[in-house]
Design brief:
single chain, alpha+beta, 5-stranded antiparallel β-sheet, 13 helices, 15 strands, elongated
Amino acid sequence: MAGQLANVAKTFQKLTIASRCRIAATIINPVKDHEPQILSQTSTRNTNFFNKLPAQDLWKGITSVSNAGKKRGRAKNVSKSKIKDLNRGQIIGVGKANIVWPGLSAPIIRGKELVEQHQLPEDPDREKKLIQIRDQMGTIKRPKLSPIERGWSGSKLPGRSIGRPDPVEEDNFEGFDTKVLELKTVFNMKGNFGRTRRQSALVVTGNGNGLAGFALAKGIEARAALRKAKNRSAQKLMHIKLFRNHTVCHDFFTQFGTTKIYVSQKPEGHGLVCHRAIKTICEVVGIKDLHAKVEGSTNVGKILKAFFLGLIRQKSPEDMAEEKKLHLVEFCKENNYFPNVIASPKECRKANEIPKDEILDFKQYCFDGRVVLKRKKYPPFYTKFRSYEIYLKKQEKIRNQDKVRQHLIAEYGEIQSFLTEKYPECKQYRKPPKEKEAEEES
């Protein structure tokens, strides 16, 4: 009996090596088999620094900064160090020494046999797998977006749509859309709170039909800042004049701070050739054709304010005609540069009433006498060759042949002269097909 109790005590000792509580077996009077044996239990607690504190507090000691350090600005790179779960990928009872622990990594009794502690062959790839799992914890997987939902650069928020503003009473803002122009992290250093971190969001909202507004808002989280800016922009809507519902009313120059923008009116089908922030604003406002040149600072906030200032200050054709006391005439390529009077004043000035130094060029008038800074265009290298002069002389007799052909086809339906009705021979000769020739011969 005493021998059996001793074996049981030894087995319990093996099973509880890794636990906090150990069972110590003490045999009292193990002399006679018929006398009762007493098994005493003494508990010992193995505690240290690492198992006294939870994992979150231990990681906090590495990744955080004290309050005194925060006041001195030492918490700049705290967000870069990520907390890792070191228990991930590990199995209880399985460690560097691959040992079978009955009751922990294996059953105590398997069938009718008592499982004993024994060592298994080592796993050489175990450490590599654990390191690989821990390295993957720090990487952030960004969600994949469709090409239509993407912003200016992949899945980042600037340039992306965040929906219409929240409804206010009966107004649901149907047809409105909000797009993010800027989302950044800002810090504020204070003596009592230290370095406080917040998110700043700049958005623009509009209905695509000349009604738009923008707003800037801050919040502790990006989602709160975006929602606040979106709803705030809906309260600051402005009406913007559009020319034929596709472009600006006229060319204009606008400036805010050190940002200068030269905006040019373009015909239908031209598209938006401009800075990406201006393109996003135009999509919200409803402008489809535009050319804009930005000079100076390319700060998104300044570009936004400068462009909106220019849109608000636009003049209608009637206002410009009344201001100059002259007719406003349009010459466009689509109409073959045929003059088209857009607006006329009530009283028009005569030629002798116009001073010599007055700016009559429409573009110069819109740009306030400023000139767009353009890169000098150099002629192609082959224009200096002698062979290019010979080529030009050969092409002189047919220099406008393609344009004339297109014009004749558009005018008469085929290539013919305007004297064809009077002189039928003034018509392009077309060789009959071979089939018709064979029929005529037969």
